[in-house]
Amino acid sequence: MSKSAFAAAFIFATTGLAFAGPDHDDLPAEVQARHGLMANYALNLGVLGDMAKGKTDYNAEVAGVAAANLAAFANTDQSLLWPADTDTMSIEGTRALPKIWDDRADFDAKEADMAKAAEMVASVAGTDLAALQGAMGGVGGACGACHKLYREPK
């Protein structure tokens, strides 16, 4: 199976994970979908991060797949995932702060920064460990820049 076919199958198979369980049954479909997106980010970032930190052995093929998945998710048009009134002040079960809708241009710019960082990781993840390690900082920075402003802490 090619990397792109594997990535497509992985996306299809794991997207349903966000919809399982009582935590999500009462949430709007858009919120369920964005929770699924974040879970997929976390899964693929975990694979890449564990390799970059030496917690697991570097595997070029697995790193390439995880990075391709990350880039695919980050380059998905997410506009349908963020309708008005799906923030922490409007519904329970989300950590999305109202500031997303107050400064949507900045939020969208941070989303674009994540896509660029994910593309960088995808371009080098399967080459060698040092390249993966060098690119991971950009992804971490992009995630953190958005989460610090737009996600409610636990």
From TrEMBL:
Q: Which residues bind heme c?
A: 143, 146-147
UniProt PTM: Binds 1 heme group per subunit.
Q: Please report the organism this UniProt entry assigns to the protein.
A: Litoreibacter ascidiaceicola
The UniProt entry's GO biological process terms, in alphabetical order, are: electron transport chain
Can you name one GO molecular function term for this protein? heme binding
**Signal peptide (from-to):** 1-20
- A Pfam family annotated for this chain is Cytochrom_C_2
User: What is the protein name for this chain?
Assistant: Cytochrome c556
Q: Which domain of life is it from?
A: Bacteria
